[in-house]
Design a protein that fits this description.
This protein is of the alpha+beta class. Helices cover 31% and strands 24% of the residues.
């Protein structure tokens, strides 16, 4: 069973349960927020987030290098080529916008939370903003997810300590980590310093156990790298930057 949702492409991966802050200033996404605001507050204001495979998160707005004569692109599919579907990864995540606040300049500050994984079947660029036909992808636990989650949590704590030491900083929080396997798998996938293709692979894992097995290998490898290269730069754990789109 499929449904159609507004589509918000980003240069990052959103996971279920993770918070997504957005700074909305492009007209196509302003139009999306205006439409979402028509939904009553007591109902979910949902849109789909998908990672960009090949394209620009922010459409060119002026001529630039190397060709100063290049005209800026406009429209809902600007920056994504003639067939936007090919510019995006096949799986994304539904986001529930808890807060949509309009600024004086007409832009919006949005705070959303990932809810469920979805497969992107088609993209429609005929309106003011992109929409997509999506199908929910259930999360299956898989064999041994509980034991794997315990191992991943131990590896993640070691990874955090190594990363904090490499940056000559203390851990920013001593908060207890969750123990529910799927929550652990998504939290670690979001918090670890990994590139977008790797995070996308984790999102698309066939089940929680498979994701946890992959994460265990990644965490051990990354921890070993940090141990040998203590000056390795990294971003803040468990905290994503506001997307400038």
């Amino acid at each position: 069973m499929t449904t159609r949702l507004p589509l918000f492409p980003l240069n990052s991966v959103l996971f279920p349960g993770l918070v997504l802050p957005l700074n909305v200033f492009e007209e196509r996404y302003r139009a999306m927020m205006r439409e979402l605001l028509k939904t009553p507050e007591e109902e979910q204001r949902q849109f789909a987030v998908v990672a960009i495979r090949d394209g620009l998160e922010v459409a060119p707005s002026a001529p630039g290098l190397p060709d100063q004569t290049t005209l800026p692109e406009h429209g809902p599919a600007a920056g994504f080529g003639d067939d936007p579907l090919k510019s995006f990864h096949a799986m994304g995540c539904v986001a529930d916008a808890a807060t949509i606040r309009e600024r004086d300049d007409g832009g919006y500050e949005v705070l959303a939370t990932g809810t469920t994984r979805v497969r992107i079947h088609s993209v429609d660029a005929s309106g003011a903003f992109l929409t997509a036909e999506v199908e929910e992808v259930p999360e299956e636990l898989g064999d041994g997810a509980g034991a794997l989650a315990e191992g991943v949590l131990r590896a993640f704590r070691s990874y955090q300590k190594r990363l904090a030491g490499a940056r000559e900083r203390s851990l920013s929080s001593a908060a207890e980590l969750p123990d529910e396997p799927s929550v652990v798998s998504y939290l670690v996938a979001a918090a670890a310093v990994l590139d977008t293709p790797t995070k996308q692979r984790l999102l698309e894992s066939k089940d929680t156990a498979a994701r946890l097995r992959d994460e265990l290998k990644l965490l051990r490898a990354e921890t070993a790298i940090i141990r040998n290269l203590p000056s390795l730069p990294a971003t803040e754990l468990t905290r994503g930057t506001t997307s400038l789109n």
